[in-house]
Amino acid sequence: MTDTWIILGASSTIAKAFTRSVAETGAHVILAGRRMDDLEASAADASARSATGATPVAFDARDPATFQPIIDAAIATGGTINCAVFVGSMPSQDDINADPALVDGTIADSFTGPARFLQMLAPVLSEQGSGSVVGVGSVAGDRGRVGNYVYGAAKAGFATYLSGLRNQLGRNGVHVLTVKPGPVDTVMTQGLGDQPFMTTADAVVADIHKALRKKRNTLYTKWIWWPVMTVIKLIPEPIFKKMSI
Amino acid sequence: MTDRNSTEYAGWGRALRANGVLARPNTQSEINANAPAIGNRRSYGDAALITGGTAQDLTQLDRIIAFDRTTGLLTVEAGISLGELARVLAPQGWLPAVLPGTGFATVGGAIGMDVHGKNHHHVGSFCQHVTSITLIQGEKTKTITPKSGSIWKATCGGLGQTGIIVQATLQLSQARGDMMLVSEQRATDWDHHIALLDGSDAPYTVGWIDAMATGTSLGRGIVEEGEICRGLKPTARGSKKIPFDAPHLALSSPIVRAFNALYYRRVPKSGRTVVRPINDFFFPLDKIHDWNKLYGRRGFHQFQCVVPLNQSSVLREMMEKVASSGLASPLAVLKRMGAGLNGESAGYMSFPMEGYTLAIDFPNRPAARDLIAKLESLALKANGRIYLAKDALSTGTAIKSMYTDHPKWAAATAKADPHKHLQTDMTRRLDLRT
To answer: Taking Cα atoms as reference points, which of B309, B284, B320, B304 lies closest to residue B189?
Structure first.
């Protein structure tokens, strides 16, 4: 049976690279995002790259009414359903400090929206008894840092959610992979200047596929972020609160 | 969504650099119509450099928009690379009709330089297989075709000066497989080399030349003839990377001489036939990422000219100068070019013309720059021309006398981009827009 991949946030740079990688294996892709014209162009690209099918559908993490039609579109393909979540938004902490209302949107985009979507999809996956969920979090979720803690908090919430989802779906043969990328050269990081251990979307996607094959639970990419974040998590709070990293 | 910081960046040869803003639009709607577009910066000189201004890197616009598997018509965004297209299309039985020596070149760049490949003698240049181009010109978005007249001829090989190339439709050619059957034979000297190239009727033909060999060995090399075939796929080898600038010694004359002698003897006297993955045949150097760093921080230049068929003696004279200078690198290529599809060239400023083309890399040193100046004046005297995708050293006067259609191009670009927003360091250095 062919694979069907729901790609949430299909216009993001990493999602684009991921979509191509599964299109080339002949999967059916459901491209969910906000900009329909962009999704239609990506669907044509996926078809040219040997996708069995490519369906653009509207998705807004802040509008739950858009969720069910995506799940219906995936079921209609008749393939083994998988889901990869690439949504999230990262306004700068300075902007959030100036306009606290931005907290709601950041958390809806990066956590509550995708969590509610996956909660709706979970019974379908359980019944199917196979398939994978790839949830993209961030190393920013491992500790609240002065420069980025609202986004970090949303990603931390999402990571905890994925951990629980893994615990639940794992009993029914569905694998859940949490991906924690460091800085990736994407739309989101443009204009931020040089970032430590920057990687590319293609490299992240290659790591995701490797982790899926090995049924890993959590993937740090680049790998260096695992030891780095392990150290950062170990810094005692009295010291950490005075640091700006 | 652009990076506003000014950065230093370079052409592929790294001898010329620019300081300016590099923007990277993610969608067509984010494109600024008044800033020149660049791709993967595989032009050696300053064709993709904009000092003090904004250059727009279009490599994020890299989607296939439409692909008709029965006719081989393919519409793509301009930032997709030709290597990516070959990788995706070959298993489906199609290939871009023309592939240059690097797969990193983008479709937009291939149009702006009207690139050629090892099959030029049969199929002509890249733009002769483009059926439409979408340009952003100021407020307007416009699609042009070969029937559009002067704007088409000014866009093909036109250095991106007629508008921002955002999309193009290519007529692909059918590929019977994704492997290449390659026959290699030694060319023992100059005359033999030319004779082998003249006598070749293979779909793809190119000669590697030992630019260090002198005397009776002058012009010796290996002539490669290729044909696409189906075959067992050898296991893919990973790519390698040059991690840092090499010391100057790396490409010094004794090392190049020794390398070339070994490389020449790699092919047995009686010749041989091998099967290679097509990407290895078309893009032999792409497996070594950042190979341009081999030349060290000073960078390098490539001299590439084409001279008419009856001027091969001038080419031999050039080769004598190169060989006796001892300055050349192992990368030196000789090829016979055809008259172009239907006996004409695609654009006013297209490089390809019927004749022999010679391309040689030199480290960026004063002696090499002097030698290149001499080679250029020889090319001019022989009614030849040099390739703007490679040039970093020429003058506007020389280029304008080599490209006799330049006035038509200048008129068309003046109309298409009246405020000269799309000028690059190259068009300024060579004063091409007047």
So the answer is: B320
